[in-house]
Write a structure and sequence with these properties.
CATH architecture: 3-Layer(aba) Sandwich
Shape: globular
CATH superfamily: Flavin prenyltransferase-like
CATH topology: Rossmann fold
Structural class: alpha/beta
Number of helices: 7
Largest sheet: 6 strands, parallel
Bound molecules: flavin mononucleotide
Number of domains: 1
Order of helices and strands: EHEHHEEHHEHEH
Helix content: 25-40%
Strand content: 5-15%
C-alpha cells in the first residue's frame, strides 16, 4: 500500500480516543501523519485517556499500542505555527481529519477563520479540493451547530458524527472508537479492517 500523508487535528471535544485509534491505524499501516492538537484538545484527551509519558507523541503511542506504530511517521506541529508546511496548499497532502471536532472549531472552519494552524490547514484542504473529514461531538445540537455543519458540508467537507453503531457488537471502548476510525479511513480512500462489514444474519 502506498504511504499517504494525512493531517490529523485533535480539538477539545470529548472523544480523544477516536483520534488515538485513528492514529494507531494510520501509523501501523505506514502512513505519514502531520498532527496538531489544540490547547483544549490536549486537555480533554489527557482528562479522558491517561496517556503514558514519552518524549514525543509517537513515543507515547508506542507505549500504548506497541512499537508497530513506528512503521509510520508522525510530525507534530503547534497550533500557533502558521508557518508549518500544512498551512500551505503547495504541500501535498491526501486529506485532513479533525477528530474529535469541537463546535468552536467547526464554527471557525465554516466561516473560513484560519487564525490557528488547525483552521488554516482545514481551509487549505477545502480550497485544494482534498478530503476534509470532521468528526463533530456535541449533544444536544443547537441550530448554530446544525447550520455550521450544513455550511461545511456544502463547502465539500464530510461530516462523520461521533456516533458509533452497535450492530458490530462492540465489547470495548476501543471497538466503539474503531468503528468511527474505520469510517474515516474509508473516506480517505483507505482499506479498513477495524470492523467487519455488515452481514445479513
Ligand atoms: C472536559 C471538556 C469536555 C468538552 N467537551 C466538548 C464537546 O464534546 N464538544 C464541544 O464542542 N466542546 C466541548 N468542550 C468545550 C471545548 O473544549 C471549548 O469550546 C474549546 O474552546 C474548544 O477549542 P478548540 O476547538 O480550539 O479545541 C469541552 C470542554 C471540556 C473542558
Amino acid at each position: 500500500m502506498d504511504a499517504k500523508h494525512v493531517v490529523v487535528a485533535v480539538t477539545g471535544a470529548s472523544g480523544g480516543l477516536y483520534a488515538l485509534r485513528l492514529l494507531r491505524s494510520l501509523l501501523m499501516n505506514g502512513h505519514c501523519v502531520s498532527l496538531v492538537l489544540s490547547k483544549f484538545g490536549t486537555l480533554v484527551l489527557q482528562e479522558e485517556v491517561a496517556l503514558p509519558d514519552g518524549a514525543t507523541f509517537l513515543d507515547r503511542l508506542a507505549v500504548l499500542y506497541g512499537e508497530e506504530v513506528r512503521h509510520g511517521r508522525l510530525d507534530e506541529y503547534k497550533m500557533g505555527d502558521l508557518t508549518a508546511p500544512i498551512a500551505s496548499g503547495s504541500v501535498r497532502t491526501d486529506g485532513m481529519v479533525v477528530i474529535p471536532c469541537s463546535m468552536k472549531t467547526l464554527s471557525a472552519i465554516a466561516h473560513g477563520a484560519s487564525t490557528s494552524l488547525i483552521e488554516r490547514a482545514a481551509d487549505v484542504t477545502l480550497k485544494e479540493a482534498r478530503p476534509l473529514i470532521l468528526v463533530p461531538r456535541e449533544t444536544p445540537l443547537n441550530r448554530i451547530h446544525l447550520k455550521n455543519m450544513l455550511t461545511v458540508a456544502k463547502a465539500g467537507a464530510h461530516i462523520v458524527p461521533a456516533m458509533p453503531a452497535f450492530y458490530q457488537k462492540p465489547r470495548t471502548f476501543d471497538d466503539l472508537a474503531d468503528f468511527i476510525a474505520g469510517r474515516v479511513l474509508s473516506l480517505l480512500g483507505m482499506e479498513q479492517r477495524l470492523y467487519p462489514p455488515w452481514k445479513t444474519p
